[in-house]
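Why do we care about 3D structure at all? Because function follows from shape, and shape follows, mostly, from sequence. That is the central idea of this module. The next example makes it concrete: a single protein chain, its amino acid sequence, and then its structure expressed as C-alpha cells.
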Amino acid sequence: MSWYPALYRVIWPFFNLFHPCRAIGRENIPQGGAVVCGNHQRANDPFFIVFAFGRHQQLNIMAKAELMKIPVIGFLLKKAGIFGVDRGKSDVAAIKHALRCLKDGHKLLLFPEGTRVKEGEDVSAKTGAAMLALRAGVPIIPVWLPARRRWFRRTDVVIGEPYYPEIEGRRPSAEDYERVTEEMMRRIQALKEKSGQ
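And the structure:
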C-alpha cells in the first residue's frame, strides 16, 4: 500500500510554512496518465511540483537510484511511489515500471535534464520523457519552477497545457525522440513568462 497520502499530509504543513507555493495552471492537468516534466534547479523541486499538483493528483517520481539506497530515506521514498533509475545506463526495469505506471493511468514526474541545472547553464535534455510518452500514448505536462525562492515567501509553480506528441504511421526513431524533447523543453521555458517571479 502506498504511503503517499499520509506522507503528503505530514510533510505539506511544514513545507508550506517555509516555502509556500502557488500553482498557476492547475486546470491544465488532464485526467489519466501523463509524463510531468519540469526544469530542475534545486533538490526540493519535486516537493514544489507535488504540492502544486495537489494531494488528489498523486505523482509517481523517477529519481536517481543512489537515493533509494539511503537507509530509512530509501524505504520511505519507495513507500511514497518513488522509484530509482540507474542514470547513464539502459535501466530496463525502471523503464518497464514507468511504462506500467503510465498505462495504468498514473502520472509520472521526471526531470528531463537528469540533473540539477543552474540558470544560464546549457545542459542537453535526455530523450527518456519523450520515449515514455510516445510508447505509452500519454501527454507531457510541462512545468516551470523559478530559480529564486525565498523563505516564507510564495513561489509560483507554472503548470502548462498538456503536449500530445504524435508520430504518424511508424515506430518512433531517435530523431523523433529528439524532436519531441526539443519541443517539450521549449514549452517548459516558455512558461517562465507566466511566473510572477
